[in-house]
Amino acid sequence: MTHDEAREELAGLRELLARYQHEYYVDGRPSAADREYDRLFDRLVLLEKEYPDLVTPDSPSLRVGSDLDASFPEAAHTIPVLSLDKAYAAAQVSAWMEKTSAAAGRPLSFMMEEKIDGISLVLYYENGVLARAVTRGNGFVGNDVSANARTIREIPLRVPRSGNFAVRGEVYLETGTFAELNTRMEIPYANPRNLAGGTLRRSKSSETAKIPLHVFVYEGFFDPPGETHSGIMAELRRLGFSVNPRNALISAEDAGDPEKIAALIEGRVKDRPGLSYQIDGIVFKVNELAVRDDLGFTGHHPRWAIAYKFDSPEGHTRVIKIEIQVGRTGRITPVARVEPVEIGGATIENITLHNQDYINALELSEGDLVAASRRGDVIPAVERVIEKNENAPLWRMPDVCPSCGAALVDRGAHRFCPNTEGCAEQRKGRLIFFAAKDQMNIENLGGETVEFLWKEGFVKDIPDIYKIPYEKLSGYPGFGERKIERIRQGIENSRDQPYEIVLPSLGIPEVGSKVTEILCENGIDTVEKLFELAASEGGAAALVSLYGIGEKTAQRILAEFSRPETRALVDALAAEGLSFAAKAKAPAGGPQIFAGQTWCVTGSFENYKPRDLAMDEVKKHGGKVVSAVSGSLTHLLAGEKAGSKLAKAKSLGVKIVSEEEFLRMLRG
Ligand code: IVH
């Protein structure tokens, strides 16, 4: 290779890597596989080593990517925040251990840790108090996300240790939680890591607080530093940090035995599917800190650690056809039916393609050979097209509903069938939703059974569930007497479900269990009150004043309760004995000292972070919480930096309560 050729290749590599880094760290939507990225990166490092005069100040090898976000203040790191060197085979790990021991002049022991696939965070403690939480950023400067990090329960806000020190760890979301949250997202996240990252960067820490983020810490920076990594981990555990209990020390003897190392890695690969969180590799670290100092760093990674990276399992399959699903809300979702393929232990036949943008980005047609994966090890996804079916055009969404023929409409990124009442697929979707486990939870009436009853014309609408002619079912294969009786029993039992379950089960847009809870807590605890609000002038204002309900939600709810179809549905179900009023609950939280009062909470608080916690106290003690200051307000709880709400409340003569006073009231 000539010098000029090297210069040209390096320029191309820099450009490509910079783009991939941006996609990975900033957009959270990488287009290149990790392995491909690593291959390019390694090539860059190799060429730069050979032609040191061609290293430019902007080379990606000189830094570790950036996830800087303009909306958070920047904070400089006082510790080196580096990345890890990588290996893809056990033999590579053994070779590295041997090389490292040779450099140290004696056999070394190593710590083996899981490489948690989350978001790297550095926690700075000053005299025992969490002073700052900073993202990795470019390794030198990161984003200060302290307010959000403080909502993570596994991050201690105060520890029994004086002086200043830093702790590095990984913030993550459990796989199960991710799967559950993601089904409720308008545009789903690709994996738990991206959702955890998005959550850590929410502009309101109260939003972060709603998501159960976890953390494992894996490096501590103390002064004096101590002797071993395992010692530091023990100290961190003592201080109350969450340290992965699966970390394991490998003795010098075992480290010298490649078969042992291969077996250890194999064991961890086997354990991986059973973990409640995602890992993308195994990290091996020199345990003795003095040796770490001697080994030092390259610009990109320390020489005292290496990550064995898993290949995320992929399978190749052909798209047989792309079909349309019409959801219960009318949302149109394209689904690829693919030739059955096994990926990471599950057989995949259907892959959701979300919307037209998604299909355009893949340039997908029917008949294409594709690489498929399970994002976050759960959700099947098409990664890329491997071989085009040249005979088929790029797939396009239809313009009319395949179920009812109505002209489709675009709302945001998605296409919808607007024929709410007349579209058979939407009705069927609502039936399945109503009976499902997370809703009315009608035993023995799962999706397949509903589908069957619907196909045979026994149920067309939700109320039909309570009028099934059971005697006619017995002729069908698979419907023995016992099965029919179990279905009947499940349906009968469901008549006793409380209002808080019944209302969200109807599938009325925006009226889910959270909104139902907010409504009930604020006295809008019967369906009739909702119909009344919808018919009244000030209905929208009354709903918007409730904490947790915004303008758009309020409008949509009222529009739904103005529809004669909603009235008819409720009447038909009420006639079947279903509950449309909440039972008066025994007060949950001790003395109802705020009963009859309406509170608004503003500013920030010492004891309530996020301030939702103060609102919870008000509600627990019988008070109502609203989000705006108006004439109906009786109390304003004002914390530090309370602004316009405080001024307005004062002018209205509302009682202003300080945090101190509030605590006194609660103590009685
Ligand atoms: S040690 C200087 N240990 O992997 C060494 N990193 O590519 C610092 N990670 O940015 C890293 N689990 O976000 C280390 N047990 C672990 C880890 C871990 C996850 C992440 C970390 C880092 C990336 C390295």
Question: How would you sum up this structure, described in words?
Answer:
The protein has 668 residues and is α+β, with helices and mostly antiparallel strands. The protein folds into 6 domains: 3-64, Orthogonal Bundle (Helix Hairpins), CATH 1.10.287; 85-309, DNA ligase/mRNA capping enzyme (D-amino Acid Aminotransferase, Chain A, domain 1, 2-Layer Sandwich), CATH 3.30.470.30; 316-419, Nucleic acid-binding proteins (OB fold (Dihydrolipoamide Acetyltransferase, E2P)), CATH 2.40.50.140; 424-494, DNA polymerase, domain 1; 499-575, DNA polymerase, domain 1, CATH 1.10.150; 598-667, BRCT domain (Rossmann fold, 3-Layer(aba) Sandwich). Helices cover 37% and strands 20% of the residues. The chain has 25 helices and 22 strands. Strands 12, 13, 14, 15, 16, 17 and 18 form a 7-stranded antiparallel β-sheet that branches. Strand 4 (119-126) and strand 5 form a beta hairpin. Helix 13 (424-435) packs antiparallel against helix 14 and helix 17 (499-505) packs across helix 18. It is globular, with a radius of gyration of 29 Å. The termini are far apart. 33% of the residues are buried. The structure holds 2-(butylsulfanyl)adenosine. 2-(butylsulfanyl)adenosine is lined by residues 82-84, 113, 115-116, 120, 136, 170, 218-219, 283, 302, 305, 307.
